[in-house]
Amino acid sequence: MTHPIGGASSWGPCGVDVASSLTTEVCPVDIGDPLVPVVGVGVFPVPVDGVEASFSSSECDPVARGPPMSFVTDLRDKMTSISLYGIVVDIFRQKDILGTVFILKLEDTTGAIIAKLHFVKSWSLGRVSIGHTIFMSGLSCSMTSRNVLEVSWLEKDTGTSLVNLSCLPALLNSSCLHKLSYLSDLTGPTNITHVCSVRIDHIEHYHIESGFSHSLCGHFASERPDGIPECSFCNCTCVGEVIRTFQLKLTLADERTKILSWCTGQTAAELLQISPDDFYDLPEDEQAMYMYTIENERFMAAIVSSKRQENNVDVENMNGDSDVVTWEIVRALKCE
Ligand SMILES: [Zn+2]
Ligand SMILES: [Zn+2]
C-alpha cells in the first residue's frame, strides 16, 4: 500500500524547487487513519524528511526512514537532531540580544514549545507567519534558566531545515497532498491549513492597498521619516531589499458560505492576476473595472487562521487598523 505520491516528476509545474526539500518516500498511512495526528495541512502524509516516520502507524519504521519526528510532549533536556511538525502560534525577533534570533512558538497536537531560530546574518526562510504549518529538523533541546524546556535551531548547522508546508505550491496542485475543505470548515476545532476550492466573490477597490515588503521575509516594510525602509518583522532597515506588494482583503465564496480573507505578496498577485506595478499603472477607473473582471474567477486556496491566540492582538496589518480579518490566504492557484 503506497500513497500515490511518486518521484519529483509527478509534482508537475510547481514553480518552486520543492523536490530538493522533499523525499520521494512516503509513509504508507491511510488517509483517515485515526492514528494520524491531524495537526497541519489537511489530513495527509506529509512527504518531508522525517515527517513520514512520525505518523505513528505501525507500518512506519523510523529506523529505515531516517530520524523520527518528535512530538512536543516527548521532548527532554539535551535531546538533539529533533524534528517537529506543527503550527506557528507566534513568531517575532528577539530584541536586546546579539545576533539574529527569532522566537517561534510552535504547537502540535500534544503541546507547545518555544523554538529559538539562530540565523548567521538575517532571516532567510521566506514568509512564515501565524497559523502556518511548518516542519523543522535538526533541533536541540535545552533548559532555560527558568527551567523551561526550549528547542534551538541553527541556520549554520548542516541537517537543519525549516519548511513552510502551508506555502508549498505542491499542496495545491497535487490532489494527493490535501483533502478539500469547505469554507465553513475553517472554524473547526483544529487550526490546520485548509485547502478550499473557491471563487472570488467580491473585492472592494479600497481593500486593495499597495506597499513594500521585505524580500527576505515577505513581511511589510514601512518607511521611516528619513525615507529608509524598515521591516517590522526583522526589526531592521532593509534598503535595496524591498519589493512592491499588494495587501488585499477580498470575499471568497464556495457552495456553502462566504468569508472575508486577506493576503499579500505573490498570493495577492496570483489572485488579482496582475502585478502591483501593472495594476497601479492603470488609470483609477480602469483599476475599478479590473476588479469586476476577476469576480467569479475560481481558485484553489490554502487558508489559515492568522489570528493570534493569546490576548487577541491584531495580526500584522499594513495600516495598523483594527479591522482585523482572521483568514489568511497563504497560497492560491487559479483553476484553468
Ligand atoms: Zn463593491
Ligand atoms: Zn523582514
How are the SSEs ordered, and which strands pair?
Blueprint: H1 51-54, E1 82-93, E2 100-108, E3 111-119, E4 133-143, E5 149-154, E6 161-164, H2 169-173, E7 180-181, E8 194-202, E9 208-214, E10 220-223, E11 229-231, E12 236-237, E13 242-253, E14 258-264, H3 265-272, H4 276-281, H5 284-294, E15 298-305, E16 327-334
Parallel strand pairs: 3-5, 7-8, 14-16
Antiparallel strand pairs: 1-2, 1-4, 2-3, 4-5, 4-6, 8-13, 8-15, 9-10, 9-13, 10-11, 11-12, 13-14, 15-16
The structure holds zinc ion (ZN) (2 copies).
Characterize this entry briefly.
This is Cell division control protein 24 OB domain-containing protein. This protein has 336 residues and is mostly beta strands.
What does this structure look like?
By secondary structure, the protein is mainly beta. It folds into 2 domains: 8-169, Nucleic acid-binding proteins (OB fold (Dihydrolipoamide Acetyltransferase, E2P), Beta Barrel), CATH 2.40.50; 179-334, OB fold (Dihydrolipoamide Acetyltransferase, E2P). It is built from 5 helices and 16 strands. The chain has helices at 51-54, 169-173, 265-272, 276-281, 284-294, and strands spanning 82-93, 100-108, 111-119, 133-143, 149-154, 161-164, 180-181, 194-202, 208-214, 220-223, 229-231, 236-237, 242-253, 258-264, 298-305, 327-334. A 5-stranded mixed barrel has the order 1-2-3-5-4. The protein is globular and about 60 Å long. Mean pLDDT is 80; it is low at 1-40, 42-65 and 311-322. It binds zinc ion (2 copies). One zinc ion binds next to loops.
